[in-house]
Design brief:
It is a single chain. The longest helix has 30 residues. Helix 1 packs antiparallel against helix 2 and helix 2 runs parallel beside helix 4. The radius of gyration is 22 Å and the shape is elongated. About 60% of the residues lie in helices and about 10% in strands. About 5% of the residues have low confidence. It has about 160 residues and is mainly alpha-helical. The protein has four helices and four strands, in the order ββααααββ.
């Protein structure tokens, strides 16, 4: 049965609804990838530091990484427990410990904390990407052919 929606002209004139599930899925994946790429920029910045960038710059980077980790942790937490690999489970524990402990006192405390946040964010991004790849691989795509039934990629 075709989905219908009511037209703005009147309640008695149905019009076909447009299937938007595919478009929503593509948009969701695009948003997730954009968030992951933004996190990767901060991860690379934190892990690539050879010298202390200064207290203000380090504080800004730490704040961004805290925000990134908070957002990414929601995605990792949304992975069903049965589908989580050990990295995903471990990274959530690490994130909780980093949130609870905060940076240690001393000149290297904030530096080390920022690097640990970056490593945690990196593991979260990897876990999310691996899960998404597994989900997409589980769905067998079909090749559309004009005027013929769909052809599975394995069929030749």
């Amino acid at each position: 049965m075709d989905a219908i929606e009511l037209s703005p002209q009147g309640l008695d004139t149905p019009v076909p609804a447009i299937e938007v599930a595919g478009a929503l899925l593509r948009a969701t994946v695009a948003l997730e990838e954009a968030a992951e790429e933004a996190a990767e920029r901060d991860i690379n910045r934190a892990l690539g530091m050879k010298h202390h960038p200064g207290d203000v710059e380090l504080a800004k980077l730490t704040d961004r990484l805290l925000t990134r980790c908070d957002g990414l942790s929601g995605g990792v937490d949304a992975i069903p427990v049965a589908e989580r690999d050990p990295r995903a489970a471990g990274v959530l524990e690490t994130w909780e410990r980093l949130k609870a402990d905060g940076p240690e006192d001393g000149p290297l405390g904030t530096w080390s904390y920022t690097r640990h946040l970056a490593l945690t964010a990196r593991d979260m991004v990897r876990a999310l990407r691996e899960h998404r790849a597994a989900q997409l691989a589980a769905v067998a795509p079909f090749v559309g052919r004009p005027d013929l039934p769909p052809l599975a990629p394995d069929a030749r």
